Amino acid sequence: MNNQRWLSQNFFTFFITWGIFLPYWTGWLVDAKHLTVSQASVVMGCGLLARATSNLFFFPTLAKYVHNKRLISILATGALITTLLYIPSTGFISLLIVTLLFSIFYPALLPAVESSATTLVQHGLVHYGKSRSYGSVGFVIAVLIISMLTGIFGNDIILWSMVIGLIVMLLMQQLATPKELLVVPTKEQRAKSLSMKTLWKIKGFPIVLLIVILLQGAHASYYSYGYIYLGDLHVDPFYMGMIINIAVICEILYFMKADTLFKNWRSSSLLLLAASGSSLRWLLIYLFPNIWVFVASQTLHALSFALAHFAFISYLTKTLPKEQIPNAQGLYSALGMGLSTAILTFLGGYLYEISPGLSFAAMLICTVPAIGILLATRNKYQF
Questions:
Q1: CA-CA distance, 183 to 116, in Å (whole number)?
Q2: In the chain, how many domains are there?
Q3: Residue 362, φ and ψ in degrees, nearest 5
Q4: Whole-structure pTM value
Q5: 3-class DSSP state of 303
Q6: Most confident listed range (65-69, 203-207, 262-266, 359-363)
């Protein structure tokens, strides 16, 4: 199979499920499983902590002993089995336990696919942005379809859509895979990558990682409460998916041109632009609590998420040796999209019940320091 096509298809398939999970899972726990918003925030927050632990330890360790294709298959199988455990679960405790198990397997699929992408980019076989844009397209399609299906069949369809998506992802692994992703790490490579200590010795890496942890964590309230917030603004459920998709469409447009747009910009300059756009995004939602401002703020997702993500992946591709890629991806996913998001989800849930706008304004505690750190370190570390 063509390497670019393989990566595009795997991004597309995974993000179909991500488009089910990210915008709708908290709302599904509230509407279909009858948890309160605060209970759902605890469940999702604990799930994010489990995700962080899994991505920090389980995923990098597993990646040292199996090739990429088998890694994705193992994680998809575990995710499917744990998703089915949601069916008989009804109470807060049982849903919490299932979510913890689910969070060990499912979110680790993201760094697994991203690691495959980084490996192929390092071999000069693919354009990352082009393939990643297919993932965003999958996300858009999923959000639109789920928005329509929930209007017809109710919120129970969210769970069954996830089950079908994971089955399709498993079937995708039966297709031909690029030979570069079928290489099992050697004993020598495992020895080189067993420790993450060498990562901290790479010039600029700790600073870049800290910045993306702050910028990705700043999306916590949007991911967990954006769907609920639209409901509080009295938006028809049919239109919620369309509104959420505005952000992803802007993300797609950026990724389609990411390999050439800002080509000569330094990573620090890209991250500074991303942090500025993110700060503006959350400030607008706080200051102007109406649907039209929320819609307009969705365009800033191209900066707050897509630009920050691409800047980090580009930095890894240019700077890190192959054997350290899973460690770096694990740290990024664990801390940037897991732990920091978990902590801020707890904070956002508490503030949301006081005033929805406060949960978004609180994200400035990440983005403003990120700007300060970038301005203070970008010339010293030359990243």
A1: 11
A2: 1
A3: -60, -20
A4: 0.74
A5: helix
A6: 359-363
